[in-house]
Specification:
Oligomer: heterotrimer
CATH topology of chain B: Rossmann fold
Shape of chain B: globular
Number of helices of chain B: 9
Number of strands of chain A: 11
Radius of gyration of chain B: 18 Å
Mean pLDDT of chain B: 88
Helix content of chain A: 40-55%
Largest interface: A-C, 55 and 51 residues
Mean pLDDT of chain A: 89
Number of domains of chain B: 1
CATH superfamily of chain B: P-loop containing nucleotide triphosphate hydrolases
Largest sheet of chain B: 6 strands, mixed
Distance between the termini of chain A: 56 Å
Strand order of the largest sheet of chain B: 4-5-6-3-7-8
Shape of chain A: globular
CATH superfamily of the largest domain in chain A: Periplasmic binding protein-like II
């Protein structure tokens, strides 16, 4: 009997997997209870698309890229740079939507008060030189790519020769914690994560504060594989895009967290691709 | 009719590579002769037995000094190893999982005679020293060969048991060469005694022509070197 | 009458003096090179964060993690299948091991690459699937099993084989007279490796496979310490209760049961796989046969030489540190010192330190001390030192002291240490290979070893660069292993119980 049930389960799971549409997403911050939060999004998409939809939890954007490349997910919520990486690896894949905030994304440079860096101004303060500095994750657009671009742009030198120490915290929340504890003097952080941390009182602004805000650039976006139309029916890509644009329920949107989604395409991310190539992170 | 001579050494040197243990050995083993091999430890008894074993090949059953048993395996499997070469690898493998019926019955009877009844399934690791010695003898008997070669097979067994076991061995094998250190047994249970000392054969004499005093001459420190048999 | 001269310091040719010179040489080399290591303490105010961490450990929240039973089941399932398949592959290889130089080289190579790096490599082809996780354990374990099984088989007692009648076939001889003689050592080593596999399986979560480590890493990284604390305690509990659920008769059922949880199995895209192994892994200039371009490509790998230097330096420091820690800590768990409660506590501390993944320890120190080499050094020394101390204490307990009148210090210096030191050093030199492997791994925390650049290369999808760095890492490990083998004490003075030979405790 047990065997029968087991065999049935296997049959069902393989039969289902043949046509299940899978997606993945990682929020900027708070990666707890991912499945619980994104299963709601999966249900919403299931209703709208008329196919089985499943959420696949991932840990990092590079894991998301390899899942996308291996066709384990057909739709993914990527960062700016990781989206470009994914689209280069999977020909014909397309960016279809971005968050309302993502068209004008920013990075904040934050500093520990004990580091005596002048606060605010139009440019990154000159006396950041010689301090200890941390990026976020290595392939984060807001935590690595764009801050490095602006540092090079302003000082004409790579971060390594500018700062006494350059680290990668791996995560925006961690960047804030490390700068607050004084492990690093300065850090580069996703502005939404910073704003949320300040709003929740999770950060002591007497110890750490913003010293410079970068100009805006495009960031997170939804990317879908190019072969979904042939696999899930004609016009499937458009259906997915429309479903995302029509997502207005705050309960669903807070998982990302975004106010809503707007259309986007591959060309919107050309600037990111250019910067990535210039910095040698893409080739 | 003349007696068949099974093995003959003619002034040969025995030993390992580069190290001679027994020099100029001249010696013959006749069929139907029960030979006791005596001498202090380290004199070359094992070397001589190994040479005999090599010459006799398939005609000899072999019971080595430290038993050479496989402690994790059962008594049955250890005895079965006496005929390992007579079955295919596959049959042997199956026998590890499920004993062969014919072999089981034969070994059961054999072990019964040797006082090992009821122990067939027990791992050798759980047996006493005397019991292990009897398993080693059982394995040699199970080989069912013409000549029995034993390197101190009754060393750690009490004298009464030792006599019984020697009887059992000699019932099955009219020809045997057995290394011993119980000198009395050499005189009572054997036809001939080979005495080794200082790397050579001191005597090769019928047992009835020898006395205990003659045997004592083999041991440099006769009275203290006589080991006490351990209880089984 | 001529007076006999007292011997000079450390002069003489006795075994222990030679060992002492060797270890002092190791420590001296470490001290000389220490100025080249980045050991700055940069943290000004770690206390708030550490306080939160401690309170999380003391108030664990077991309900914070979603699908926890699934993560536990997968952790065990991956470990079990990884060990099982590694064993099935490694055993036949062990039989050929002494005969084939090529095979020994191949095994050394697959062993030299850490499970986590195998996972990163396989992730590109098999995605986030059980195939990636199990193969990442199976491949290096096959190499380890081949080597250790071969070492154990080499020590098979000859007597039962000599007692066999003439003409017994090779296979029959093996299954009757050889295998049973070493069976218990083979199986006890296999058990030990399963424990290692549990740790590795948790680590696989750090790169995104859905084991306990997946949640543990997220929780730690994001500062959700009550959840992290609960997961850490749960992990200790799983290791500590291994003897209860890891029963010989239970494991096959667990293995079969876990099969149902391991899916969905990936559809392997042949074209993708082929592209990966034939194009992605190799530098473009090499594929084009452009040699000067290859040189250019090679010189563009950032900070290659400093990374190699840091890897070796950290390996050396970790080895020397482990020696000091082991020497200091082993009396904690030995019956020759202290009383029952202190020993229990000592043993607990040692087990805790050796069970905690090094990456975790290093991470905690990183918060306390800042991002230099210091946290990695401490983590390596404490983890490996505790592991060696634990084994040395076990050896010590088998020694019956001659004189009970000696004070503790005298017992330590005159009675026990001289007999244990050879074994301790042998264990240390066995660990050297593991330490250098872990050194590369700690790069994932941002310490500038080779592992840092391997991790970056994978993140930037530059697989050719990652592959070359992995090859360099493997070559370093093989070199260090050869060096350690050369200086490893062979003639161990007085190691009680040959069952405890270091071979059975080889790298984890």
């Amino acid at each position: 009997m047990r065997w029968l049930v087991a065999c049935l389960l296997i049959l069902i799971s393989t039969a289902a997997s043949a046509e299940t549409f899978r997606f993945t997403a990682i929020p900027d911050e708070d990666q707890s209870r991912l499945e619980e939060r994104f299963d709601k999004v999966a249900h919403y998409l299931e209703d709208r698309l008329g196919v089985d939809v499943e959420y696949v939890p991932v840990k990092s954007y590079s894991a998301a890229v390899s899942a996308f490349r291996n066709d384990q997910v057909q739709l993914a919520w990527f960062g700016g740079l990781t989206g470009v990486q994914a689209r280069r690896l999977v020909p014909d894949s397309r960016a279809i939507a971005q968050g309302k905030e993502d068209a004008e994304f920013r990075t904040y440079f934050i500093a520990n008060h004990d580091s005596d860096v002048d606060t605010q101004g139009d440019d990154l303060p000159k006396n950041v030189q010689g301090k200890a500095f941390t990026f976020g994750a290595k392939t984060s657009t807001s935590g690595r790519l764009m801050p490095e671009y602006y540092i090079r742009d302003q000082f004409g030198a790579p971060p390594k020769s500018l700062f006494s120490r350059v680290g990668f915290s791996g995560d925006h929340t961690r960047t804030i914690a490390l700068v607050e504890s004084g492990t690093y003097d300065i850090g580069a952080v996703n502005f939404k994560v910073w704003d949320a941390a300040v709003a929740d009182g999770r950060v002591d602004t007497d110890k750490v504060d913003v010293i410079w805000k970068t100009p805006t650039y495009p960031d997170y976006q939804w990317t879908v594989r190019g072969d979904v139309d042939s696999r899930y029916g004609n016009g499937f890509t458009d259906k997915v895009r429309q479903a995302l644009l029509d997502m207005h329920d705050p309960k669903l949107l807070e998982s990302f967290p975004r106010e809503g989604f707007i259309p986007a395409d591959n060309d919107d991310y050309q600037p990111i691709e250019d910067v990535g190539e210039k910095l040698g992170l893409l080739r | 009719m003349s007696v068949e001579e099974l093995v003959r050494f003619d002034g040969e040197a025995l030993g390992h590579a580069r190290h001679t243990v027994l020099a100029e050995l001249t010696l013959g083993l006749q069929a139907g002769e029960r030979v006791a091999l005596l001498g202090p430890s380290g004199v070359g008894k094992s070397t001589l037995l190994a040479a005999l074993r090599q010459r006799l090949g398939h005609r000899a059953a072999w019971c080595p000094q430290e038993h050479g048993l496989v402690p994790p395996l059962s008594v049955y499997h250890n005895v079965y190893m006496g005929r390992l070469e007579r079955h295919s690898a596959f049959a042997n493998f199956l026998n590890l999982i499920r004993p062969r019926r014919d072999a089981w019955h034969e070994i059961q009877a054999l072990c019964g005679e040797l006082g090992l009844e009821g122990l067939l399934k027990r791992p050798v690791a759980q047996l006493s020293g005397g019991q292990r010695q009897r398993v080693a003898i059982a394995r040699a008997l199970y080989q069912a060969r013409e000549v029995f070669l034993g390197d101190e097979p009754v060393a750690s067994i009490d004298p009464h048991q030792a006599r019984r076991l020697l009887h059992r061995v000699q019932n099955q094998h009219t020809t045997c060469v057995i290394a011993l250190h119980q000198r009395e047994l050499a005189l009572t249970h054997f036809d001939r005694v080979w005495g080794l000392r200082d790397g050579r054969l001191m005597f090769d004499t019928p047992a009835r022509e020898l006395t205990l005093d003659d045997l004592d001459t083999l041991y440099p420190d006769a009275h203290s070197s006589d080991p006490q048999p351990e209880p089984a | 009458m001529r007076e006999e001269r007292a011997p000079g310091l450390l002069a003489g040719d006795s075994l222990n003096l030679r060992l002492a010179r060797r270890s002092l040489g190791l420590i001296a080399l470490c001290l000389v090179l220490l100025p080249f290591a980045d050991l700055a303490i940069t943290t000004h105010d770690p206390w708030a964060e550490l306080g939160r961490m401690l309170s999380g450990l003391l108030h664990p929240d077991l309900l914070a993690t979603e699908s926890l039973p699934h993560a536990i089941a997968l952790t065990i399932g991956f470990a079990l299948w990884g060990t099982l398949l590694g064993m099935l592959l490694g055993f036949p290889l062990a039989l050929l091991f002494p005969r084939s130089r090529l095979l020994r080289g191949g095994c050394a190579f697959v062993r030299a690459i850490h499970e986590l790096f195998w996972a990163l490599l396989l992730l590109q082809v098999f995605g986030l699937s059980a195939v990636t996780a199990i193969a990442a354990l199976t491949i290096p374990y096959a190499g380890i099993f081949a080597k250790v099984y071969a070492e154990i088989l080499e020590l098979t007692p000859r007597a039962p084989v000599d007692a066999l009648p003439e003409g017994v076939g090779r296979l029959s001889r093996f299954v009757y007279a050889e295998l049973p003689m070493v069976w218990s050592r083979l199986s006890s080593y296999t058990r030990y490796r399963f424990e290692c596999a549990m740790r590795s399986s948790v680590l696989l979560g750090f790169v995104g496979l859905p084991t306990l480590g997946f949640h543990l890493e997220s929780a730690f990284r994001e500062g959700r310490y009550p959840e992290a604390g609960a997961l850490l305690w749960l992990f200790y509990l799983m290791i500590a209760s291994l003897h209860l659920w890891g029963h010989r008769r239970l494991l096959p059922w667990i293995a079969l049961g876990s099969l149902f949880l391991l899916g969905p199995w990936p559809d392997i895209d042949g074209a993708l796989l082929w592209r990966f192994v034939s194009v992605d892994l190799w530098p473009q200039p090499l594929l084009e046969g452009n040699w000067s371009g290859l040189w250019q490509w090679f010189s563009e790998i950032p900070d290659l030489l400093p990374a190699i230097g840091n890897t070796l330096l950290l390996g050396l420091m970790g080895t020397a540190g482990s020696l000091v820690v082991a020497l200091l800590l082993w009396p904690l768990a030995s019956r020759h010192f202290g009383n029952r409660p202190t020993r229990m506590a000592g043993k607990g501390v040692l087990i805790l330190m050796r069970s905690t993944p090094e990456l975790m320890l290093a991470f905690i120190f990183l918060l306390m001390l800042g991002p230099s080499m210091l946290p990695a050094w401490l983590a390596l020394s404490l983890h490996n030192g505790a592991l060696i101390a634990f084994l040395v204490a076990r050896h010590a307990d088998a020694i019956v002291p001659g004189s009970h009148a000696l004070p503790a210090s005298g017992r330590y210096a005159y009675e026990l240490l001289p007999r244990l030191y050879g074994g301790l050093l042998a264990l240390l030199f066995y660990r050297a290979e593991t330490i250098i492997r872990e050194t590369a791994l700690l790069g994932m925390l941002g310490i500038a070893t080779l592992g840092f650049h391997i991790d970056s290369s994978f993140a930037y999808m530059m697989f050719d660069q990652a592959f070359v760095l992995l090859l360099i890492t493997a070559a370093l490990n093989i070199g260090v292993d050869a060096l350690a083998r050369r200086y490893r004490p062979r003639e161990i003075a007085d190691t009680p119980g040959q069952h405890d030979r270091p071979a059975g405790e080889a790298p984890c």
